[in-house]
Design a protein that fits this description.
mainly alpha, 2 domains, coiled coil, membrane, transmembrane helix
Length: about 120
Amino acid sequence: MISLKLQIILVVGSVLSFLILLNLLRRYRLELKYSMLWIFIMIFVMILSLFPTMFTHVANILGIEMPVNALFFLAIFGMIVILFSLTVEISRATLKIKELSQELGILKHELKQINDSCNKD
């Protein structure tokens, strides 16, 4: 069982994080598709902090004896999921940058050929 002080800190932290996330979404500083995982994590933390006995049940379901070990497991798993999703997005962005760079090079080459042919005439 977690202490009341820690429970309050977790709830306040979750609410503040959620408000910051909503503000970033509102100002278009963060896309909705990237924020969905964070929203899920914040809701999960808030539910577990409001109902700490559920965490013991989650630990039992996972076959983990101590709830604090389940907390570490879930935190590490969450970080791995976030890292994986960021790696996918970085790979996608890198491929898009490469494609756009190649298109830009082709367009510059074509523009130079057009300028050269206009200067010869």
